[in-house]
Amino acid sequence: MINLPNILSFLRLPLAFLFLQESTLTRVLCIALAMITDWLDGFLARRYRQTSSAGRLLDPLTDKFFVCFILSILIKEGQIKFLEALSFFARDASVFIFGSYLLYSNKLKDYIFRPFWSGKIVTTIQLFMLLGLALKIAIPSHFFWILLLLGTGSLIELFVYRTSV
Any idea which fold 4-162 has? Predict the structure, then answer.
């Protein structure tokens, strides 16, 4: 379905490629625009009831592509270590584990994945960390540990609050 929220989600794809520019200003603008489009697509979809199954899939996929692409560039440039980059995916691992549980327990077909607060918090922290890295600010290791803890918290939130399918 083509609507404004989905177009905004798609915009994160070219923004990722713009990050190939070595200009700090361009990189910061790419991340800032990704943050804005991520917030705005969800807001508009809810506000104008333009949510769709395509949008529920497109938004997180473009988010993941954007973050993976940016992290791969930062790893190549030596600004972040591979294991630190993996901490960005702790929440995704939690969603995968929960989805596997739903599949194994035959509840997947009845379950509707929705955004949840710990996920929004993780995304916000990730984007601010990416902004810092784009500005060539060294990120203290405890921030990567925070991402791991929040990812674990996402798993707990999914199992405690979301298993009543």
Answer: Four Helix Bundle (Hemerythrin (Met), subunit A) (1.20.120)
